[in-house]
């Protein structure tokens, strides 16, 4: 197995090089040069497998010869050691052929734990092979950063740099970030939104200032962020249909990695009959699939804050697929988007995208009503992000005969205050912690300021 760049540069990398990376050398994202494909009989034979064994079957072809089998098996099993449910990702029924795949039983209670726990172990293993030192860097509006912080806490060969929007992280999440070990973790508040933070990280990766330090992104621009989530689809299809019955999915658009992972799972042979991209009022992805117009826009603050952004890095990988692996076309489109903040694709490619994905946008009042309705009719307490997915799945499903699975990405207890206000939450509601005074934020386009801050932090560390 080897990897190439979405932008068509002369790049050929093995799995280890992809893990120990931010972007490809030409500024693109790494993608597998070919996909493993399984037969229906092979997939059906996995129905009885425990979760970590299923993960090995799905993940190992992407690793190839970069790691021996026993080491990879051990590493994968260890990645789920701190999850607090025996099933790892249990399914909860909330209606006729309607299910929620609970992805929030990891250490920080969000789906981000899957990629973070796997990535930290892969990075630590491969850094040991190359005797390298790495800076784990990325952008967060809450859950992604917390998951990375937890996962890399015991990786002595790494330090971390986390960018976050000054006014885009909850007090509870910010207090955890600020409590991190300042010798290993640098926090960089940005006077902007989450999209601005992501843009700064991408620009920094293309102009890396630290000699001798490997930059590794903890966002899903790193291929591991996609790889860890392909398994979600296999697990759900095997549980509900034995690997032969078609299953539909509704994905709250808090991560384009999960959406792209669904596309990959289909290419690998999984019987998926529908993928719905579910958005809140920040509907940039919905507008792309609905109108062939993708723009960065001002993000509204909503009940589902993990979805309050408009810059989806894995859209580049999907465009590369739509253009049949034409790196030059992908590069031209993405560079135009980076310059102008707008993107439309060819009509033929857009029509193909409409066949592959459906999309639906849910407003705030609908979210509140769905949270209450689910609790009254099923006893299930769900967070607003999950409510967006469940409602979109119910309204926009193509087949009542096929199970519809919504990804439950965030634990309900993280929205305890709102759920209590709606009469749904029966447990204790945590009080907002005292938050330390924040330093002045970086200007949202201040790449030079960020580079200087990283250089200063590196000098102090050395």
Notable features of this structure?
threonine synthase activity, 18 helices, 462 residues, alpha/beta, 5-stranded parallel sheet, 6-stranded mixed sheet
What does it look like?
The chain is α/β, with parallel strands linked by helices and 462 residues long. It has a domain at 87-105 and 227-421: Rossmann fold (3-Layer(aba) Sandwich). The protein is 44% helix and 15% strand. Helix 6 links the parallel strand 5 and strand 6. Helix 15 packs across helix 16. The radius of gyration is 21 Å and the shape is globular. 50% of the residues are buried.
Briefly say what this structure is.
Its EC number is 4.2.3.1. The chain is an alpha/beta fold and 462 residues long.
Give the helices and strands, then pairings.
Blueprint: E1 3-5, H1 15-19, E2 30-32, H2 40-44, H3 51-63, H4 69-79, E3 91-95, E4 98-102, H5 112-130, E5 134-139, H6 143-151, E6 158-165, H7 171-178, E7 185-191, H8 194-206, E8 214-217, H9 224-241, E9 247-252, H10 256-267, E10 272-279, H11 284-291, E11 294-295, H12 315-322, H13 327-340, E12 342-343, H14 347-356, E13 358-361, H15 364-378, H16 384-396, E14 404-408, H17 416-421, E15 442-443, H18 447-461
Parallel strand pairs: 4-14, 5-6, 5-8, 6-7, 7-15, 9-10, 9-14, 10-13
Antiparallel strand pairs: 1-2, 3-4, 11-12
Helix pairs in contact: 3-4, 3-9, 4-5, 5-6, 5-9, 9-10, 15-16
């Amino acid at each position: 197995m080897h990897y190439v760049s979405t932008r068509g540069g002369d790049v050929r990398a093995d799995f280890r090089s992809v893990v120990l990376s931010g972007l490809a050398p030409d500024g693109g994202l790494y993608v597998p040069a070919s996909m493993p494909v399984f037969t229906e009989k092979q997939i059906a034979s996995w129905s009885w497998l425990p979760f970590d064994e299923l993960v090995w079957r799905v993940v190992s072809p992407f690793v190839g010869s970069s790691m021996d089998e026993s080491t990879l098996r051990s590493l994968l099993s260890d990645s789920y050691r701190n999850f607090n449910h025996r099933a790892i990702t249990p399914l909860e029924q909330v209606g006729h052929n309607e299910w929620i795949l609970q992805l929030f039983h990891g250490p920080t209670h969000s789906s981000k734990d899957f990629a973070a726990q796997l990535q930290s172990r892969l990075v630590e293993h491969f850094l040991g092979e190359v005797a390298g030192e790495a800076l784990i860097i990325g952008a967060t509006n809450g859950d992604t950063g917390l998951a990375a912080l937890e996962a890399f806490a015991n990786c002595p060969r790494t330090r971390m740099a986390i960018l976050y929007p000054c006014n885009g992280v909850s007090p509870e999440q910010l207090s955890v970030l600020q409590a991190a070990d300042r010798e290993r973790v640098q926090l960089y508040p940005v006077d902007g939104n989450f999209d601005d933070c992501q843009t700064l990280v991408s620009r920094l990766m293309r102009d890396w200032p630290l000699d001798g330090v490997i930059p590794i992104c903890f966002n899903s621009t790193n291929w591991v962020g996609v790889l860890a989530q392909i398994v979600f689809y296999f697990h759900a299809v095997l549980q509900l249909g034995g690997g032969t019955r078609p299953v539909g999915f509704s994905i709250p658009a808090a991560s384009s990695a999960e959406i792209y992972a669904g596309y990959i799972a289909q290419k690998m042979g999984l019987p998926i009959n529908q993928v719905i991209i579910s958005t809140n009022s920040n509907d940039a992805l919905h507008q792309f699939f609905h109108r062939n117009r993708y723009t960065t826009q001002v993000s509204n603050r909503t009940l589902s804050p993990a979805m309050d952004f408009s810059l989806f890095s894995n859209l580049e990988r999907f465009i590369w697929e739509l253009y049949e692996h034409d790196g030059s076309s992908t590069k031209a489109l993405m560079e135009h988007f980076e310059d102008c903040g707008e993107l439309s694709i060819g009509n033929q490619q857009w029509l193909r995208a409409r066949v592959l994905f459906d999309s639906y946008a849910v407003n705030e009042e609908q979210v509140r009503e769905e949270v209450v309705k689910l609790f009254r009719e099923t006893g299930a307490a769900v967070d607003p992000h999950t409510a967006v997915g469940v409602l979109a799945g119910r309204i926009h499903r193509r087949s009542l005969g096929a199970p519809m699975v919504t990804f439950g990405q965030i634990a309900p207890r993280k929205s305890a205050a709102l759920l209590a206000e709606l009469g749904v939450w029966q447990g204790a509601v945590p009080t907002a912690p005292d938050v330390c005074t924040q330093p002045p934020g970086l200007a949202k386009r201040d790449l030079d300021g960020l580079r200087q801050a990283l250089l200063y932090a590196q000098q102090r560390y050395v």
